[in-house]
Design a protein that fits this description.
about 625 residues, alpha+beta, 8-stranded mixed sheet, 5-stranded mixed sheet, elongated, binds adenosine-5'-diphosphate, binds magnesium ion
């Protein structure tokens, strides 16, 4: 056996580099963290060729004292940690004292730095970790680090690098995350000489949101703030209609540090349940603050994964914070007047669990025992489809609805609502110049139904705004909310003539298996020999003619794996609500239209159970711009 020997410093650094320095993005992350720890107010990140040939980071932080410049490149050299006890109360971003040594080991580095009290700065040149040059040099206060030719001496690592564009995108994503984490910093990012990001550093998260996401996306966010016992949460979440096609827009910042957390993703996504479209993901920028001792950041070398001591509590605070922010949001999405731009998503985060992963964790582990998701209920008995021969809308005398008196506003009584952890109440987004695009629907503002078009959309005028209500989507939501209420008991109607129908054997078997659950919802089915089933009762929301199709849909859903009771329940609710709602394309009685409009205008109904908006808003300003009047 070979003799046991201590590794020499160079080899040890290369090993450390393998952990800390995976790719240009990880270098940028470490260097930015150092600049932030050094108290910089402004920093510029510049890369060329995806960061492979050059990374330059300039900050106006404290600088490094001349006599310590070399020490900074030694392994486990840090100014941020002295004793083991310090580990429990880490306030700075870096603390392992490994980054500079590791980066230096695999690149050519130039350091230029000066502290406030030193008349001259110092410049160092290192190659593969070895000092090549040291000289005094005049420079502004702060630090510039230039990293050239990353992995020039580790060809094996070099082979793993992706195309420059992909590495550059990963760097950009790191810079964006840092910007979102630090609204107080002005961050500039240049890629191959082109400026791609500049944040003002005015301390406002909303400003960073605009810089990072652009105006079109930023207007689709709503602000929230919750002070809980264990955790404070503040930031922005996307409106359900503004969810994205990827999870790449979910940002979590814990005590100033961007982190990845399945727990937080699950908590946010759970709050959108039944409000967003399938396959869409909420976007968010959430800052969480907890006492450092309630979280272990030391679980992952790159320090992006954290472990909370009390996961359950954190989950609940985030979940309710998001839920109440969405609940408080009264705007309908704007009617797009121009073609929406093609979405260019940032690269997806590595190791992001699949939708299924999060979902199962959510429902099975986390939500168990938690108060059930409560949705605003619409305790209104809406008559089912009535086909009218002639639609008579109030046309001569436009109806101006008086402000709806409070007691008539059909919202749930307070005791039915989920316990609010929000203290104080969520703060509404301040989106200054663009707010004209979005309507604030308020009970105090009078409105009138202008009419119905395409037998589908109710047009409502309210002040400077014109709302288009999708009557089917809104009505579907109303049914869904009513049935979603925990104490809702479906009315079963017995059929004078039971319906006999056949289904493929598996579907038939699945339905029979779920008999008790179906019964809870007003269906009574039994086997009827061969492939056949007999239906004796159905929920009063449904017409007999709709029953067969719906049961077959349910059977399909069940056999596709909807197993958990909650999930089955939801499938049934979705189907019944959809079937029972008035149909787009068929005429409705004016009273029905009025009822639907009232629910939507009161703010009780916002999204259909599949997440489509129930109304969109066209503003007078939009129209005037379109006609060239403004
Ligand atoms: P760590 O950040 O874990 O302490 P690093 O290897 O990243 O370890 O940095 C080593 C030390 O170099 C830091 O503790 C800090 O004192 C100093 N340093 C690094 N970058 C900067 C910077 N941009 N400005 C001032 N000091 C810096
Ligand atoms: Mg560091």
């Amino acid at each position: 056996m070979a003799k046991i020997q201590q590794l020499d410093a160079h080899v040890a650094n290369l090993i450390a580099a393998g952990e800390v320095v995976e790719r240009p993005a990880s270098v940028v992350k470490e260097l930015m963290e150092n600049a932030i720890d050094a108290g910089a107010r402004a920093l510029t990140v510049e890369i060329q060729n995806g960061g492979m040939s050059l990374i330059r980071l300039t900050d106006n932080g404290s600088g490094i004292p001349p006599e310590q410049a070399e020490t900074a490149f030694l392994r486990h050299a840090t100014s941020k940690l002295r004793t083991a006890r310090d580990l429990d109360a880490i306030a700075t971003l870096g603390f392992r004292g490994e980054a500079l040594a590791a980066i230096a080991a695999v690149s050519r580095i130039e350091l230029l730095t000066r502290t406030a009290d030193a008349p001259l700065g110092i410049s160092l040149l290192l190659e593969g970790g070895a000092l090549r040059l040291r000289e005094e040099s005049g420079c502004p206060q702060g630090t510039t680090l230039l990293v050239r030719d990353l992995f020039f001496n580790t060809p094996a690592r070099l082979k793993f690098m992706k195309r420059d564009a992909a590495e550059g995108a990963a760097v950009f994503s790191v810079v964006q995350k840092a910007a979102l984490a630090h609204p107080e910093l002005s961050i500039k990012f240049l890629r191959d000489g082109k400026q791609e990001l500049l944040t003002p550093g005015d301390g406002k998260l909303s400003s960073v949101l605009y810089s990072v996401f652009g105006r079109d996306l930023a207007v689709g966010f709503t602000e929230l703030q919750t002070v809980g016992e264990e955790v404070t949460v503040e930031g922005f979440v996307s409106l359900p209609a503004c969810c994205r096609g990827t999870r790449g827009y979910q940002h979590f910042i814990l005590n100033g540090r961007p982190i990845r957390s399945r727990l937080l993703m699950a908590a946010v996504e759970e709050a959108y349940k039944n409000q967003k479209m399938v396959g869409k993901f909420p976007a968010c920028v959430l800052h969480l603050s907890v006492r450092p001792s309630t979280v272990d950041v030391n679980v992952h070398p790159a320090k992006t994964e954290v472990k909370f001591v009390s996961e359950r509590k954190i989950f609940d605070v985030v979940y309710y914070a998001v839920l109440s922010a969405l609940d408080a949001e009264g705007r309908h999405p704007p009617l797009e007047m121009k073609k929406p731009k093609r979405e260019t998503a940032p690269p997806p985060l590595p190791n992001v669990p699949s939708a299924g992963g999060v979902q199962s964790m959510t429902t099975q582990q986390l939500r168990d025992g938690a108060p059930a998701l409560s949705v605003r209920a619409a305790p209104l008995a809406i008559p089912t489809v009535t086909v009218q021969t002639e639609l008579s809308l109030p046309k001569a005398e436009p109806r101006i609805a008086p402000p709806i008196p409070r007691e008539e506003v059909p919202t749930k009584p307070p005791e039915d609502r989920p316990p609010r952890m929000t203290e104080p109440a969520p703060v509404r987004a301040e989106m200054p110049p663009e707010s004209e695009l979005l309507a604030e629907v308020s009970e105090e503002r009078p409105w009138r139904i202008v009419g119905e078009v395409q037998a589908t959309y109710i047009i409502v005028e309210q002040g400077e705004e014109i709302h288009f209500i999708d009557k089917h989507a809104a009505h579907e939501r109303m049914h869904f909310d009513r049935m979603q209420k925990e104490d809702y008991v479906p009315m079963a109607q017995s059929l004078l003539e039971p319906i006999i129908f056949s289904l493929p054997p598996e579907e038939r078997a699945v339905l029979l298996q779920q008999q008790p659950l179906l019964e809870d919802f007003g269906f009574s089915i039994e086997a009827f020999g061969g492939d056949a089933l007999i239906l004796r009762q159905l929920p009063s929301e449904l017409l007999p003619a709709q029953a067969e199709e719906m049961l077959s849909e349910l059977a399909e859903a069940f056999s596709q794996g909807a197993r958990a009771k909650m999930e089955l329940r939801e499938r049934i609710l979705h189907s019944v609500a959809c079937k029972a709602a008035i149909k787009g394309g068929s005429k409705s009685a004016p009273e029905e239209l009025l009822l639907v409009a009232e629910e939507v205008m009161s703010g009780a109904v916002k999204y259909c159970p599949h997440g489509r908006p129930v109304a969109v808003t066209l503003s007078r300003a939009q129209l005037e711009r379109r006609f060239g009047r403004a």
